[in-house]
Amino acid sequence: MTGKIVPIKIMSKTIAVRKSSGTVIEISQDISESLVKIWGFDRSWIGMINEEANTIEGVAGFGFKASEMKTCYSITADSQNPACLAYMQKKGVINQPIADRPKTFDLWLKKLGIQSYGYFPILKGRKVFGVVGAFYHTNRVLKKGDAEILFSALEQTAVALENAQLHEKIKLSEKRYHALFESMNIGLAVIDHEQRICSVNQTFENLSGYSREALIDKMTLNQFLSGESQKRNEMIRGMNQSPQFWECHFVNKKGLVKHVHMTVTRMANSSNRLVSLIDISKQKELERRVNRSEELASIGELSAGIAHEIRNPLVAITTSVNLLKDEPQLSDEGQQLLDIVKEESDHLAVIVDDFLKYTRPKKPSFQKENINSLLRDVVQKLKDCNSRKANWMEHYDDDLPELLIDRYQIRQVITNLLLNGLDAIQDGGVLAIHSQKVKHGGMYQVLILISDSGIGIPKEELPKIFQPFYSTKEKGTGMGLAICKRIISEHDGEIHVESKPGKRTTFSVILPIQKSNRKE
Fold first, then answer.
1. Which domains does the chain have, with CATH numbers?
2. pTM (2 d.p.)
3. Cα dist. 451→321, 379, 418, 497 in Å?
């Protein structure tokens, strides 16, 4: 195989075509084909070095079946496999004597009818990228001079394969970056120096309410930032310094305001910046509720102390009024004044009792109860005792199981809700109570609906009605619904309200059916 200048040139052209864009497998396959069609070998094989697994893994070949081409050799210090020797010795291994060949390799040669072979490292400097195998299964013999020419030709292959490996690593890195960018549960956007959006991930799309087609190159980050213009301008100027962190308001397509934590980082070798947005609205709402709870706890402690201090003078006032009313010389005007004092004292006593019930609640005593029986009892007593003429509508689901509840506390809740309904309606109005089994939060629960045809509750007041000390009634204490909410919460339940002013108000009480670990 002397005078192989022409095959070398053709092989060089083949490598040059693939060098800039070919993959490792494409370049390897082209070289394998050139070894057979141009150099004149009967078969060829190329294996790449897997440094992590310390193996030579077949990636291409010509004249072999796919299963034969995928041969994998383990590289060990004592290996006599010609491919491994070519790798370890960094030189060609030609027609190794049969005595030195591994038996498995010898069987492989015989099976394929190979008479002559050579293995050559694909070498650049001291780094071996792979191994080429060239084979004859005729009487032709691979000579040392031919091997040297082939060995030198493979230097170009090493350069091409190195470029291909780097290119594949870059592509793999880009794929991983893209997958990470898309899968992050944080809103990510790339913006240019004018804040124009260049790229976004799915979470940013969801947060903004816009598709990426509507965002990219058409919208700016500033369009989503809410708040004082001075603060927005400070943030925009600060984006030139990296990294920067802010808590700000983000307004989506529907006009909903989200509280977000925003980080802006300059991207390497670019004037663009990476913006990350974490929606902390729920966290802020939780903080607000915790702060509110702490405030209410402080108010509750203060109220309890005041209530106890007021209760004793109230008892003395009420007792004194009752004694004075029995005085025969008391004038009619005096009697009227004492009646006013007694009425207001009784009202004050109710307020004090409600304060104490809310701030120092009695721990529930849980027992299994028939909820429908309890509802019927409450309704019947209100029918007997209340003078308001109402049209009662009752519907009870008879298939409800027994619930683990504090009978007296739940009776207090239902009574309070029904009395509120009676106060809201005129004579002849409708008051409805309904019980049923529903699936709520993935579990079966009991739903109790109490609805009235009264004047309703204004929309702006709905968020406040369960707050302590808030009342729409002239002489209300503002504690009734707050106590109801606390009782239902202690039963692991929920209470909600819906209202249409001028039409109706409906309270929903949800109580769990599942077995509980509560101590009775």
1. 5-173 (3.30.450.40), 184-279 (3.30.450.20), 284-359 (1.10.287), 367-512 (3.30.565.10)
2. 0.42
3. 41, 13, 8, 10
